[in-house]
Amino acid sequence: MPNNLLTETPQGLLILLAVFFFLAGVLRGFNGFGSSLLSVPALSFLLDPAEAVAIATIAEIPIVFLLLPSVHSHASATTTLPMIATFVICVPIGAVALTSIDPTPMKIGLCVFVLVMLGILAKQDRITTFLHHKTLIAAGALAGFSQGLTAIASPIFATAIIARGEDMQTTRANIIALAAALITLSLISFGWFGILTLQTLTTAIIMLIPLALGVCCGQGLFNRASHLNLRPVFMGLVVLTALSTLTQELF
């Protein structure tokens, strides 16, 4: 693992990492969530899991919080507050686990978890038919722990929110509000447990550039080609990234 990603990593790998962050941005811009499914495994290929999770979380800050002013009036407190209450408890627990687990098994676990989350997204329409509003607290607890441990929580809470059957504007607002709460609590937890460093902050700021460009492209793609089913393409890319990191650790 490089002690300093920006100075000790070959230029070709840094460019490749920037490309993956751009594609992660396209994924978020087109789908509305899910960029960490790609950015975290890509970072884990080069860094320890704790650094990868911290960088992916920091890079999301402007992307999510810039959306808040346009949606805050549409979010439902009845839906979001129970989940946020569980986030307060479970995000720090996940962060403790992140700092306690050995990096190698953690990276393997991260990749496996990404593949599981892809399965949830693939079966999302079927899963939502079995969900009820009473599952919000359980979904919030699982999403909070997952965010603190892996920075990948959106498939869990997004599925629970979609299951509410509210109008699209409210659903989107709830998802963005919950994402903002998760990021805020993650940063507090990561700072408390010493996961945030100058290197993670610097790397996140630099990777924010391709991520933001990707979000813009993803939004434009959605506006022009929302009728196309591009989910298999995105999922295939995420699977390839996760399997590459998994293979590196196993072999």
Task: Write the topology of this structure.
Layout: H1 5-8, H2 11-31, H3 36-44, H4 49-65, H5 68-71, H6 77-100, H7 103-122, H8 124-128, H9 136-150, H10 154-162, H11 168-192, H12 198-225, H13 231-250
Helix pairs in contact: 2-3, 2-12, 3-4, 3-7, 3-13, 4-11, 4-12, 6-9, 6-11, 7-13, 9-10, 10-11
What does this protein look like?
- It is a single chain.
- The two termini are 16 Å apart.
- The chain has helices at 5-8, 11-31, 36-44, 49-65, 68-71, 77-100, 103-122, 124-128, 136-150, 154-162, 168-192, 198-225, 231-250.
- Helix 2 crosses helix 12.
- It has 13 helices and no strands.
- It has one domain (5-250).
- With 251 residues, the protein is an all-alpha fold.
Structural class: mainly alpha
**Residue fraction in strands:** under 5%
Helix and strand element order:
HHHHHHHHHHHHH
Give me the count of strands. Answer: 0
Low-confidence stretches: none
The mean pLDDT is 81
The largest sheet, given as strand count, sense and whether it forms a barrel, is: none
Shape: globular
Whole-number tally of structural domains: 1
User: Portion of residues in helices?
Assistant: over 70%
Radius of gyration: 17 Å
